[in-house]
Amino acid sequence: MAAVTKRACNPNEEEIDLRRGPWTLEEDTLLIHYIASHGEGHWNSLAKCAGLKRTGKSCRLRWLNYLKPDIKRGNLTPQEQLMILELHSKWGNRWSKIAQHLPGRTDNEIKNYWRTRVQKQARQLNIESNSKRFLDAVRCFWMPTLLQKMEQSSSSYLPTTLSSQNSASPSLSPNCSAPSISLSTSPPSKVSQIFEHPINGNSSSVRSPSIFSSDSLISQLPQTSERLTSPTHAFDHTVYSSSPALNDCYYVDTSSGYAYDMEGLNLDPASAICDFNNQQFDCQMTAGDWMLDNMTDTLWNMEGM
DNA sequence: AATATCCGCAACCGCGAAACT
DNA sequence: GAGTTTCGCGGTTGCGGATAT
């Protein structure tokens, strides 16, 4: 039951009972129908004209975060999680800006994801979520694991003729200035949304932002052949090798058929050991290191990661 | 089975920027 | 240019379901 408060916007106006709390189906219907026929904007007058005893602010929030038709619901895909991690490393808590690059996702949803999932992991590791250390952790383990899931999903999801080709695997292209999660072959038919590289964009696909620049976190991921020594590590050369078609950079969202959750990921601790010869990052893994100590029971077994 | 605790998410709040008068 | 209104953003809260005890 939504709370009701007495409020007078203007001393001359009669007091209006303003509802608060969860929206009812009736209110949702009113708002949807009103916007369908009159459009959105001018939220305060919209609330009054639609017969909603809500603030314009509340109506706007309800519409943008929940009722808008193109809102995508369900778990964030690995691709989306990866993009959030990447963009947050660049922009910080600019949720709305980050959300602009994730069609169908709201800033509120992304913010909640960051606070409930990402910051939780940082807390469990006793490191600041905005610290370089945590960024390294994200870069060295979280992102590769997401990429692994993307690789696996694309392999199982795409037709075998496609998935058997290296070029069809999501590839990290260190030199790619556009989204570096790429498919260099024609996008599969089941791909729901494709962000094309700007120089190739010629369809109705949503244009991708130019993220994942050369100095981005992803481009700083350790090259598999150089730094990942475990034979069981899931990242083979197809993940990190340069795509022969660097210009063909797609962001592939397979969410239409999948609902991934980090919690479902299971990374063998042994496979997470890095040997960073170049020591570019301070997340070198040796027995007794802070991260290794923690990874079996927090971040790196992916329970809750 | 009952209670406590945890967790995710929708909704609210305060503030600053932009638009309008 | 000043004052007011509207909009949008980021931070926070609180509810309800899930899980643990």
Automatic annotation (TrEMBL):
Cell compartments where the protein resides: Nucleus
Ranges for domain Myb-like: 15-67, 68-118
Entries under CDD domains matching the protein: SANT
Coiled coil regions, renumbered to chain: none
Keywords: DNA-binding, Nucleus, Repeat, Transcription, Transcription regulation
Superkingdom field: Eukaryota
A Pfam family matched in the record: Myb_DNA-binding
Region (Disordered): 157-184
GO cellular component: nucleus
Molecular function terms from GO: DNA-binding transcription factor activity; sequence-specific DNA binding
InterPro entries on file: EOBI/EOBII-like_plant, Homeodomain-like_sf, Myb_dom, SANT/Myb
Domain HTH myb-type: 15-67, 68-122
Compositional bias per record (Low complexity), positions renumbered to this chain: 157-175
Protein name: Uncharacterized protein
The species this protein was found in: Prunus armeniaca (Apricot)
